[in-house]
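Notes from hallway chat w/ T.B., transcribed later so I don't forget. T.B. wanted the structure written out for a chain they're using in a teaching module, and asked if we could keep both sequence and structure tokens in one place. Agreed to drop them here.
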Amino acid sequence: MTQPLSAGWHYTDFNINTKKFPKMKLLIKHRFSSVKNDWDRLYHVTPNVSPFLSSSAFSIAYRYFYPYYLLWHALPIFAVFTVNNLVRGIVPLIKYQGKYHLFGDVNGFNECGFLYDDSSILPEIMESLHNFFGEIEFMKIDERSPLSMFKGNNAIPSNNVAIWFDNKFDDYFKTLSKSVRQNIRTAYNRISTDGYTISMEYYLPGTGACVGGATPC
């Protein structure tokens, strides 16, 4: 049984003094609850934001980070960038094998990134991250995100897995192996036992049109 992270870690405040934003400050925090209000606000304005960064999805990954803490002796880091006391960007990080990564890279996210209120602040944030943390490995960045414009010459593109099925998810489900179908049923049963419900909707690419849905099998 994993335990949620709940320790009350302190934060540290640093002056950055960037050229474009001379009053920018960097605050280092370790509790998601301490940034959640600003996190929710920034999530709704960040361009091409990943759904993995929604507070509902991120809070689950943060809550059950405990096994990684035991394995790596690492705590989640929230680099919070403020200008005139207004939070303009939040970068979630972890340190793994001596190198900083975006949170989610090595603990289950399909896409990574961070939150900010305007793309114009990104160069200052990226420069400040490099100056303060040194090398940070940016992996699983959506090519549609403004963050992708900072990729280096050695960046290696990769494609997400595409799963094709008709309007009925049931037809796809039947093609899975017996063990996979059983694992899915077991997961659904556990969710139901915990008092939750689950459903799935799928959409046509680029249109936003919902073409079907599915409930647990």
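Follow-up for T.B.: Residues 178-193 form the longest helix (16 residues). Might be a good example for the class.
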